[in-house]
Automatic annotation (TrEMBL):
GO terms for biological process: cobalamin biosynthetic process. The keyword Transmembrane does not apply. Decarboxylates L-threonine-O-3-phosphate to yield (R)-1-amino-2-propanol O-2-phosphate, the precursor for the linkage between the nucleotide loop and the corrin ring in cobalamin. Pathway: Cofactor biosynthesis; adenosylcobalamin biosynthesis. The lineage of its organism: Bacteria, Pseudomonadati, Pseudomonadota, Alphaproteobacteria, Acetobacterales. Keywords: Cobalamin biosynthesis, Lyase, Pyridoxal phosphate. It comes from Acetobacter cerevisiae. This is threonine-phosphate decarboxylase. GO terms for molecular function: pyridoxal phosphate binding; threonine-phosphate decarboxylase activity.
Length: 334
């Protein structure tokens, strides 16, 4: 935003896809920060995550300092001759595997991923819901893909970073011999600074992951936050309803502006426009931070505003865009 000094403040960050509904965390007593985490606290966090994600036993839960740290762990944990990604998707997955010298192949058709799963030694990776386009595959389809992987000596990683609001999870299928699931805490509970994420897998794979992470992979703040929030089903139910209503509000505004969009994820939507960089700059002049993609120039991701003031700013910016003769719109369905 340094290039837009005249933009109104405060800036509103709509670029992340993190929930705008922050969990009302009760901060732990500061004295817990003066000691190392206890084993019973770590075990209780695993039990809370197993409850939240529908996993039958906590021995299939691995906690880490954010799901990104667990993505980076995957090449050390899972044997792979090659990786097949269903994309376009979050770039962190390809980066993690390529850093370890594993060939990465990108496909855009789920049928092509099914074909890749029949090649022994392949790790298939799916983000569900996908980031940034919000594509959502059914748990039944993913179950079939996991079975195909198991039958052919391949593996399936499903990154469910945004799944808490969509309820299409494959985590309850565990233990499954070919399945690994990733979950994000910060995106769901609006607490990304806590740095907490989970890897869910068979007991054998989970034990290997814990050994690779070493002692105390989650700090005391993450332990406290996870143990509180993951058992609070009433809060999650309310946040899920709020996010769905906000997503409808957002897409209604986009429709009124004539901007084409796609995606089933509640926490963000993807705007499709031939001149997305111009739309991004327009939002910047209104103090709104959105996300464009260097490798996907016709796409812009919008998250959910957190306050009435942010919604008002967004609505004003969209109205101005629609009224601008320099900025052609793309009508829904075009």
């Amino acid at each position: 935003m340094a290039h837009f000094p005249e933009a109104p403040r405060p800036y509103y960050d709509l670029s992340t896809g993190i929930s705008p509904y922050t969990y009302p965390l009760h901060m732990p007593d500061p004295t817990v920060l003066a000691r190392l985490p206890e084993e019973d606290e770590e075990a209780d966090l695993q039990a809370a995550a197993a409850f939240a994600y529908g996993v039958s036993h906590s021995n299939m839960v691995v906690a880490g300092a954010g799901s990104q740290s667990l993505i980076a762990l995957l090449p050390r944990l899972l044997p792979a001759q090659r990786v097949c990604l269903l994309g376009p998707t979050y770039s962190g997955h390809a980066q993690a595997w390529r850093l370890q010298g594993v060939p990465v192949h990108l496909v855009t058709d789920p049928a092509a991923l099914q074909q890749a799963a029949t090649q022994p030694g392949t790790v298939c990776v799916v983000c569900n819901p996908n980031n940034p386009d919000g594509r959502l595959l059914s748990a039944d389809w993913l179950h079939g893909l996991a079975n195909t992987c198991a039958a052919h000596g391949s593996l399936l990683v499903v990154d469910e970073a945004f799944a808490d609001f969509e309820q299409e999870s494959v985590a309850p299928l565990l233990p499954h011999p070919a399945l690994v699931v990733l979950r994000s805490f910060g995106k769901t509970y609006g607490l990304p600074g806590v740095r907490l994420g989970f890897l869910l897998a068979s007991p054998e794979v989970a034990a290997q992951a814990r050994a690779l992470l070493g002692s105390w992979p989650v700090g005391s703040l993450g332990l406290a936050a996870g143990r509180q929030a993951l058992r609070d089903t009433a809060w999650l139910h309310t946040a899920r309803a709020q996010a769905r209503a906000a997503h409808t509000r957002l897409t209604t505004l986009l429709d009124a502006t004539g901007l084409r969009h796609t995606g089933q994820a509640s926490l963000f939507t993807l705007v499709l426009h031939p001149d997305a960089p111009s739309l991004w700059r327009h939002f910047c002049t209104y103090g709104l931070v959105t996300r464009i993609f260097a490798d996907q120039p016709g796409r812009l991701r919008l998250g959910l505003p957190a306050t009435d003031a942010a919604w008002s700013r967004l609505e004003t910016a969209l109205q101005a865009w629609a009224a601008s003769p320099k900025s052609p719109v793309s009508r829904p369905g075009s």
